[in-house]
Amino acid sequence: MKETSSLPDYPRGLTFEQVWAGLMENREQMKETDRLVKETSLQQKETDRRMKELQEEMGSLHNRFGEMVEHLVAPNIVEKFNGLGFDFHRYAPNVRIIKPGTKDKLAEIDILLENGDTVIAVEVKAKATQKDVKKHVERMKILRQDADLRKDKRRHHGAIAVAIMDDSLRSYILKQGFYLIEQTGDTVQINAPEGFKPREW
């Protein structure tokens, strides 16, 4: 009967020592691979951390820029609208619309102009997108609903003040029936071209 062995069938010409050395080398390679994977993971975590810090810095910068734009708009806004024939006597920044009976904020208006007949809600943006314009449409609906609850029958219009935009966004804002407030030098102007009809809520 042929005798069998439980030992591995090593390739011919290789000694046990050579095979063992190969296994040890392979183990070292696996350790190195594992070390590289861990190092890459740590580098990725560091990259993620730096990206988060950068996003926070950009957000802070954007907020400061937005505040700067709002401060530029605020001192001139009443005068500019009154130059269009309005007679606004009340100016209020950062007006919150609260859900009745709760403390839940439904919307926040950057600048609210009021007189006995008309209310204009101004949204201030350093740089706006169509999504921002659509959000202001929803904000105006909330403002109208809140006014109805208070039996406020005044006309409600919207305006958007933007520091940076392109022609397509400018056209889109006006088509939505919003007054457009643009920066010109160290002041602002209201863009209401001939034939423009402000949307009423």
What does this structure look like?
The protein has 201 residues and is an alpha/beta fold. It has a domain of 118 residues: Trna Endonuclease, Chain: A, domain 1, CATH 3.40.1350.10. Helix content is 48%, strand content 25%. The chain has three helices and six strands; from the N terminus they run H-E-E-E-H-E-H-E-E. It has a six-stranded mixed β-sheet, with helices on both faces. The longest helix has 67 residues. The protein is elongated. The relative contact order is 0.10.
Summarize the structure.
The chain is an alpha/beta fold and 201 residues long. Helices cover 48% and strands 25% of the residues. The chain has three helices and six strands, in the order αβββαβαββ.
Descriptors:
about 200 residues, about 50% helix, 6-stranded mixed β-sheet, alpha/beta
Largest sheet: 6 strands, mixed
Class by SSE composition: alpha/beta
Rg measurement, Å: 33 Å
The helix fraction, in percent, is 40-55%
